[in-house]
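Need tokens for this chain, all 660 residues.
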Amino acid sequence: MTSPDLTQANIDKINELFPNVVTESSDAGGKLVRAVDFDLLRQELSDHIVEGPQERYRLDWPGKRAAAFTANAPIAKTLRPVREESVDFDTTRNLFIEGDNLEALKLLQESYLSKVKLIYIDPPYNTGNDFVYDDDFAESSAEYLARSGQSMESGERLVANSEANGRFHSDWLSMIYPRLKLARNLLTDDGVLVVSIDENEHANLVRLGEEVLGDASYVGEIVLKNSSKNDQAYVSIQHEYIVFFVKNRSANGGDWGEKKEGLDKIYAAFDEFHRKHGNDWAAINAEAKAWYKTFQASDPVAGSRHYEWMDERGIYFASDISGPNDSQYVYDVTHPVTGEVVKMPASGWRYPKEEMFRRISDSLVHFGDDHTSVPKNKTYLKNTEYQSLTSIRYADGRAASKRLAALFGEKVFTNPKDELLLRDIYRAVGVSGNDIVLDMFAGSGSAMQAVLELNSTESMSCRFIGIQVAEDLNESLKTAKGAAKKITMNAIRHLKCLGRPETVAEITKQRMRLSHERFAGDLLADSGFRALRVDTSNLIDTLAVPDSLSQDMLSGAINSVRPDRDTYDLLFQVLLDWALDLSEPVVAEQVDGREILSVAEGALVACFSGDINPTIISEVARRQPLRAVFLDSGFATDAARINAEQVFREVSPATEVRTI
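Here are the structure tokens for all 660 residues:
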């Protein structure tokens, strides 16, 4: 009987925009209530690091504020297309971006805002040997912007988070935090974040994910047993985790399911038992029990070993038929062979009398040899082939390594993720149709190949975006030991033979090229990729304000484009500026000796000629594109540019016209 609580309503609105700033606090009576962390909110709305910590419930570490700051800081960079390293550049809808994933995620923010269904990441595990990204948080916005605009060697952003510096959790958290913040923006409302992680940062990851995506975002995890080593003190760790978060529980209700593994083996075995024993169901049951015992607990078949009976309808599990409430349904049931009243469950029957006798008549109740045993329900395997995602998985880590080695002809990557497991996860959580899957730590490319596997088996058209820094394999070789050292040497030799740079990103691209060859015969699956590279802006740095330009400096300030950039470089920067999909088809054609680029059948038409004449303007305007862009220096005079604007106002007034 009161007016609405506007404070709570405002907190709800803030929570939608910035879930990480909503926390817990105590009211005047000491009761825990939801509250806004105004220090963090100020940080979200500020271009510099905000000081002023308070005591509150949250995950905190040295450098957190700086990490939040760097997530929001702008960069003066762009994505440049690399046609010669792509596969089916003109037609593919898949992207591979080479560069720092923090910078790449910033560049993708507008073009892919709320468009990615699933983000999978396999970040550095903080083992004391892996590299982490050095984002250099201790700098101002101006310093960060200046540094981000400079050309840097690809390996400079990677530093070893070694035992020598304490293998700091803070280093790892500061690395992953801004990347998760940016990733959240790309997820669809029903989007899913999936993270592979080990025990070193598992607890921190769960808490951090809840902070970035909201307290209700964590929905569970898979414990993946992938090792049998027994060489550690205290407890020998033989597993990893696959952790799941959803962006919005109300949009993603968790109706996730997967088909049980090993069913083909079970059906084939029972078909053989049936041929051998006919309708002697007891003999089939005895042989099935013995057959199931031949499988180890890690084998998927063992997970269905309770389906040990068979009748005319098929394979079934003799399940419990007792009542949910004590003595709710109590009545006599006679055995079909002995005619005696059978033993009743202690809590009575599950079904009312009429329903129970109907089920008996339909042979849906399993009776023992005589009346001394309690009857069971018949639960048929064909009706229970699908199940919710299970939290315990067994995986032979060597299988994925063997498949990758077979693809390359030798081992070139240590411990690649299992692309078939990832494919099954995509399917289970609802990736379908034309959905986009993004992997910001692409590594060997398992998550990207998993998309191709899904498309091939399910006849879908899902797309991938992969991001991988050009980590120098020769630097990795310096710290590699044992088998890892040999595999790294194989990778370096393999890339040398191909004449390609010796980096992890090149291994990723080569895997996708080989995968394309494998899937090329599948006409339903797009197996190519459009290669892009994070690079400096296409525009020349302007280091003087207009008032400081003298007359003799004006001619040198006319051309604003770097001399090493081409029309496709400019086009992709325009696509980013206009928040257009970077995988849209591009058609190039010549008009009056000038190149015109048309994107997505007229969504954008561009001409970056240095000599734009009225014929070009008239032709572009006649096509009535949604957007048109020209090179400013391509107009001979200001009057020529003004005339061009007038042509568009008359011929295509709805076209948005810009110059760069």
